[in-house]
Amino acid sequence: MNKIIMFTGGVETLSYFSKRMADYFVQNGKTVFFYDLKMPVISSKKVRKFIRQNDTILITFNFQGLSKEDYIYNPAVNTYIWQDYNIPCINIAADHPYYYDKQLADLPENYIHISIDRLHEKYFKEYYPEFKSGGFLPLAGSRLNNEKKLKKICERDIDILFPGNFTPPEFCEKYAHMINEEYAAFYLGIIDDLLKNPYKTVEEAGTEHTYNELGAVAYDDMRKVLNKMIFIDLYVRNYFRGLVVKTLAEAGLKVHVIGKDWEKLDCDKKENIIITKFSDSVTCMNAMENSKIVVNVMPWFKDGAHDRVFNAVLNGAVSVSDVSLYQKEEMPEGCGVSYYDLRHIDELPEKIKRLLSDTDNLQKIADEGYKAVLKKHTWDKRAEWLMDSFIN
Questions:
Q1: Is residue 278 pLDDT above 80, yes or no?
Q2: Nearest CA to 300 among 194, 228, 392?
């Protein structure tokens, strides 16, 4: 395959990931066409001219171009442009498959699903056996400016950075009450379980509570049940995001946050939260270049990794993160990351104070992590894996 179709104009971070991989593809002799989702009429005409049958492949994130978009999908015959030319469609699902139960239907015959978490891959194989799994490919990171020398930890102005949006959990909780109080009690019971046991995944807690309530459930019914629990995922991750920032701020630590709606956080020391409205990936990495510590709360991935961790380390900071099995395998304690336990967030301020008090040790952690991530966890490495697995 020499020609690759990718997407821009949708979610900014996904466009950024795609562009970083496209750089590698082009450097290795491939031709990349970016379909602009904001300009579908023009893009749909251009992409047909770009395609060469049996020599073109599509690589996308989160079903962009595979969600029955106008000018891509023809409802009259229930087909996508890609089916007209028999193009393999590789989709990297950056969220759990239960987010996409609707999209995981009426897909092209050549659909290939990539999971960013090993438990996501296991779930996909169990609940969507009708589709082909292309395996596990974790997210990756980027260095903002390879030509620019990274600042030493002691030269950085920001002690603590937290990148990521915030949604007040009560916004998510309203979805528990949309049917009746019996359903609300069921959903709130799952939320309570996850808050007490944050090492569990949503699908683990959701299936446990469903089986206890209903007994055996067919897999095609269970995947619909879990799809209705997306708001639980959002509730739990935002609960812990808010709790982490609140705990640090109320302990007297200044926390720079980049993201929307942080002004809505209930906190007695809001003066310790310095808010920058989210704009794009470059803004976040600019801040990481000037930060000593970048605090992370994983999305509800328990066996994958997140780009925030890799980005922080590649831009010279130390990531302080909760634990994912895969992430800890790749980056043990002290290799770019220092880990904390979501069950003991009250201990986090003292942990960060200890780290900040020893800049020599913090620099050592940053340096060890940089070498490890640069070797294995850049978007170049992910593009190389895709080329070896599906393109060459």
A1: no
A2: 194
